[in-house]
From TrEMBL, chain A:
Organism: Olea europaea subsp. europaea
Source taxon at top rank: Eukaryota
GO biological process, one term: ubiquitin-dependent protein catabolic process
Assembly: Component of the 20S core complex of the 26S proteasome. The 26S proteasome is composed of a core protease (CP), known as the 20S proteasome, capped at one or both ends by the 19S regulatory particle (RP/PA700). The 20S proteasome core is composed of 28 subunits that are arranged in four stacked rings, resulting in a barrel-shaped structure. The two end rings are each formed by seven alpha subunits, and the two central rings are each formed by seven beta subunits. The catalytic chamber with the active sites is on the inside of the barrel.
Protein name from the UniProt record: Proteasome subunit alpha type-6
SMART domains: Proteasome_A_N
From TrEMBL, chain B:
GO BP term, pick one: proteolysis involved in protein catabolic process
Source species taxonomy: Eukaryota, Viridiplantae, Streptophyta, Embryophyta, Tracheophyta
GO CC term (a single one): cytoplasm
Name listed for the protein in its UniProt record: Proteasome subunit beta
Alphabetized Pfam families for the sequence: Proteasome
Length: 317, 235
């Protein structure tokens, strides 16, 4: 008649036996500290370490683990890349859809005519921050009839993120933002991270497999400042292809957005992107291979990609 | 009665007599102006902006204060001139000082230019008018930023516009016709000053609240604002 009681011994046997064995071994070596480590070990079974419970706890090494975990969330999202020249900024990202049936998550947001943002990480957080940025731009324009300088927008964003690292009832935003925009002092690309830091970049990539893109960008970035708009987009597509690790780059798998002098922030439509991919022959190393291999390759890559997707939380994109 | 003597610009409003608006807080709202400045005149010239105003503060029909600076520089790029209630102008200067301070505290390469300041003031003036507590001024805002000249005006009810030549108060009636005839795109600095002096002379003849001491401010392309003070005695 008794209800299943989860404190019954049969549920706790495994962990307790393991701990007891360890304690026995430690006690033989050093009886005094055993009791202290026993408590720690039981607790540490549940957490990676004992200082990561909330964001307002420092570790003895001077780290805030919750903030670092939030930055891990950014690495789980699919890749987003940004590059800039003197007059243009290009944002590019990989579209990841949960299944073939669903549409892909929106990763690039227009914030104003002169600013746009690409996100990686928790898309819900990204959406909320984009709305905040749009609001700030609109309010500034209402008061001053001129565009909010990008440098000020990112500082406001960074300050907002910092607040979440210093309140016990909040958590850090789990999204990294590549903010690309134009103002009086030229074209700018910034990266805002969950820690509340922001950095200006010539080119940057965030999200999963972004290291491959960063390697490509590091090779080419010196020429970006003087690059033409077309070459900048070409480099963005090449960098994007690096993150796909051999998969074929098609316009359905990526999103590109551009902002520049005399050109308001806008997302390029699929036909334009596909035309650019074809023009620059960026499709993939297998472009030269026979069609059979081309057909098999994506499906094999998909199977490999699926386990990765399952380990990433559904809310991450 | 005070109002009749002041001879204010036709755009200025009579105080509200509607009892619906009257409240205990009446003593906190601006109902009439007390110490006032008269016209401000501004023009664009080849290299920037020129503003002129006399240095008088009238107390009703009495020409009480004769060294009131009604033209001030604002930030790195702008100039402001005010007619109307002097204390409200001082309040506006406080708002602008705070605004410029916050702008400077960003410590980045950006700064608020004349267009931004003009729009900010428009929002302030219009907001105050909507609360039936206006800042009793007509303002001229001009400046140069990145080679772009800007000249605009905003008054106590929030009416705002930009033009190549603007004036407040009596200047609208006496100075603007002169400027419409004689202003052109490529006035040199000397020509501009001569033109403004002509306007101020007519205002001295015909405006009872004008005094014979002038202040002229200019703003150059690429250079911070600078001032020259002129004392002009006419017979």
């Amino acid at each position: 008649m008794s209800v299943n009681n989860f404190t019954e011994p049969k549920f706790l046997v495994g962990p307790i036996l393991r701990v007891l064995n360890r304690v026995r071994r430690q006690y033989i070596q050093n009886p005094v500290s055993t009791l202290h480590t026993l408590c720690n070990d039981v607790v540490c079974k549940m957490f990676r370490n004992q200082y990561d419970t909330d964001v307002t706890t420092w570790s003895p090494a001077g780290r805030l683990f919750q903030v670092e975990y939030a930055m891990e969330a950014v690495k789980q999202g699919s890749a987003a890349i940004g590059l800039r020249s003197k007059s243009h900024v290009v944002l590019a990202c990989v579209n990841k859809a949960n299944s073939e049936l669903s549409s892909h998550q929106k990763k690039i947001f227009k914030v104003d005519d002169h600013v746009g943002v690409a996100i990686a990480g928790l898309t819900a957080d990204g959406r909320v921050l984009s709305r905040y940025m749009r609001n700030e731009c609109i309010n500034y324009f209402y008061t001053y009839e001129s565009q909010l300088p990008v440098g000020r927008l990112v500082v406001q964003l960074a300050d907002k993120a910092q607040v979440c690292t210093q309140r016990s009832w909040k958590r850090p935003y789990g999204v990294g933002l590549l903010v690309g925009g134009l103002d009086e002092s030229g074209a700018h690309l910034y990266y805002n991270c969950p820690s509340g830091n922001y950095f200006e970049y010539q080119a940057f990539a965030i999200g999963s497999r972004s290291q491959a893109a960063k390697t490509y960008l590091e090779r080419k970035f010196v020429s970006f400042m003087a690059s033409s708009r077309e070459n900048l987009i070409k480099d963005a597509l090449f960098a994007l292809r690096e993150t796909l690790q051999g998969e074929k780059l098609t316009s359905s798998a990526c999103t590109i957005a551009v902002v520049g002098v005399g050109e308001a922030f806008h997302i390029l439509d699929q036909e334009t992107v596909q035309a650019l991919i074809n023009e620059f022959e960026i499709a993939g190393e297998e472009a030269a291979a026979p069609d059979q291999a081309g057909v098999d390759e994506p499906s094999a890559a998909d199977d490999q990609a699926a386990p990765v997707d399952q380990s990433a939380a559904p809310m991450d994109m | 009665m005070l109002l009749g003597i002041l001879g204010m610009n036709s755009l200025d409003c009579t105080p509200a007599t509607n009892s619906l608006i009257r409240s205990e807080a009446d003593s906190q709202r601006t109902l009439y102006p007390y110490v006032t400045g008269t016209s401000v005149v501004g023009i664009k010239y080849k290299d920037g902006i020129l503003l002129a105003a006399d240095m008088g503060g009238s107390y009703g029909s009495t020409l009480r204060y004769k060294s009131v600076e009604r033209l001030k520089p604002v930030g790195k790029h702008s100039l402001i001139g005010a007619s109307g209630e002097i204390s409200d102008f001082q309040e506006i200067m406080r708002y602008l000082d705070d605004l410029i301070l916050s702008d400077n505290m960003w410590d980045d390469g950006n700064s608020l230019g004349p267009k931004e300041v003009h729009n900010y003031l428009t929002r302030v003036m219009y907001n105050r008018r909507n609360k039936f507590n206006p800042l009793w001024n007509s303002l001229v805002l001009g400046g140069v930023k990145n080679g772009q000249k800007y000249l605009g005006t905003v008054n106590m009810i929030g009416v705002h516009y930009e033009d190549n030549h603007v004036a407040t108060g009596f200047g609208n009636h006496l100075a603007l016709p002169l400027l419409r005839d004689e202003w052109h795109e490529n006035l040199t600095f000397e020509e501009g000053v001569i033109l403004l002096e002509k306007c101020m002379r007519v205002l001295l003849y015909r405006d009872r609240s004008a005094v014979n001491k002038l202040q002229v401010l200019f703003s150059l392309c690429g250079i911070h604002t600078s001032r020259l003070l002129g004392n002009c005695c006419t017979v």
